[in-house]
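subagent[fold] <- orchestrator: predict structure for attached chain, return tokens only, no commentary.
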Amino acid sequence: MRGLLRSFTRLGGVRSYSAVKKDLRIEGVKHAIAVASGKGGVGKSTTAVNLAVALANKCGMKVGLLDADVYGPNVPIMMKLEGKPEVTKDKKMIPIESYGIKCMSIGLLVDKDAPLVWRGPMVSSALEKMTRGVDWGNLDILVVDMPPGTGDAHITVSQRLQLSGALIVSTPQDVALMDARRGINMFSKVEVPILGIVENMSCFKCPNCAERWFIFGEGGSRKTAAEMGIEVAGEIPLEVGIRKGSDDGVPIVISAPDSDVSKAYIEVAQKVVSRLEELSKEQHSRPEISL
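subagent[fold] -> orchestrator:
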């Protein structure tokens, strides 16, 4: 166990040193942010998709969306992506655009129902090709939809990309928050700033009487955020429209832009932008050390 813990300490040191290397940035991409969760089923991909749409359509940014969830790529369905990406003369894939966002997913490269029974090295290779092997052009933000958990894909992305920050998605339930804490600590180990925590399925508002039901608990994310010294980026209620939009390939920020849910996603996007601006100012104010 001590050896395992030492390996994580070394991992953080590697990330700290490599962060100053300019080649960790993808050419033309100003910021890359991870949308992550400690466990599956909390609405991480839905949050990533609607965040990307809000950043592009409401914040006026040039946005890319990378589906790094190689074992369960859902972005093609949620963004209504069809066909396979074309390739440039220098053998880089051209992302498929939808709702003003440049998208790339392993789901575009394999058969729809094909299982991806891959070991760590194959996952790392695929992620490398979907990041640096893609002609992203000029982007303000590349949103990376991470796989759930804390595994090979997370280490690969955090080591090979200069992530500007990570947004953690969880439900208010204690079981989900326990795993969210692990995700937060993992990104802290590799020195990736936490942009905040998004509480998904925060409550259910009855469409008839407007009474709010806290199906998965109340205030769990706020308590966790306070204990870990991070911010709550937003609270997204549980609504049928979110699920329907995901299944139909029309994110709710597009289908119902004036709804309370869309406003909640837009608020998250605005907080992410503000947090990135703060981190950029902090980075520029630090003294530069050459080794």
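orchestrator: received. Logging for downstream: The longest helix spans residues 260-285. Residues 39 and 148 are 5 Å apart (CA to CA).
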